[in-house]
Amino acid sequence: MKISFKNDYSEGAHPDILQALVNYNEDQQPGYGEDFYSLKAKEIIKKKLNSEKSEIYFVSGGTQANLIVISSILKPYQAVIAATTGHILNNETGAIEATGHKILGVETADGKLRPSDIVQILENHKNIPHQVMPKLVYISNSTELGTIYKAEELQILSKFCKDNNLYLFMDGARLAQALTSEINDLKFDQLADLTDVFYIGGTKNGALIGEGIVINNPDLQQDFAFNIKQKGALLAKGRLLGIQFLELFKDNLYFELGENANIQAMKIKKVMTENGIQFLSDTSTNQIFPILENTIIQKLSENFEFYVWQKIDEEKSAIRIITSWNTKNYVVEEFTKRLKDFFLK
Length: 345
Known about the structure:
This protein is of the alpha/beta class and 345 residues long. It has helices at residues 15-23, 36-49, 62-73, 87-90, 95-98, 115-123, 151-163, 175-179, 191-194, 224-230, 239-249, 253-274, 294-300, 329-343; strands at 3-4, 55-59, 78-83, 103-106, 133-140, 167-171, 197-201, 211-215, 287-288, 291-293, 304-305, 307-311, 316-322.
């Protein structure tokens, strides 16, 4: 059986989560997220954010979170600004556009948005009322290229959005990996002040399913639950999500799992760097994009699974390697050994 580096949800769930689901299985609780576990998980997350003003809603997946957030807070004529690598542009089957909201894409080298990128969009949409109104800035942390927003970058972006009457929404599918990156200086509790909305990704970090939408802007909180219900995202057995987030956040499990994913990826990156391999982007999280000769890629594919991400030239391509919350040391050792023994002598 091949070892997979295709994604960070190849495995099921962390054992503590599975055990908690078993332990509480016969405990009768109210439905629709009003159970003890969901309420307790929200209480803990608010405390870690140091933000009683924030409201938290659990849904099953990332596309669902993006769809509900964006479609609920924008008016029909308002649009989203996103990097062209953004998940909502490339991997959600037009879910946002299907709700009637245009996505205005910006080319960036590292998957991150900066005020200078957004100014360009604002300047090009002044033909009122004949063009859509840019209203929401969508970012991911970590990005789809494995890069992260450091504290100062997010502070600058947040201030720019506030000054220009724009909402700032952070996709946190890989938030744990961003916040435990070896170069990160952004704190979890800063997100409550720097974003209008963000979500905490569970699916890619040890949960069976689940994302936690955190709405920090009070103006966007009213009636949000109606949108969740209308979009089919309000689980009758909401406890299934609440139990998982309670396990992830009652201690530091959420961040420990993200850190493990990063550590394993950086081990691979270190070996590759030492042997002269270049990368498509300089990442410090659990996604790396090494540029390899196609013959090496073919040989590695015999024992390992990964995506061929981008063709560089006739002889080389960039591949994407993703390590997970559950990636073991021996898996990384096997991969790096094959690299050194067979391809990098």
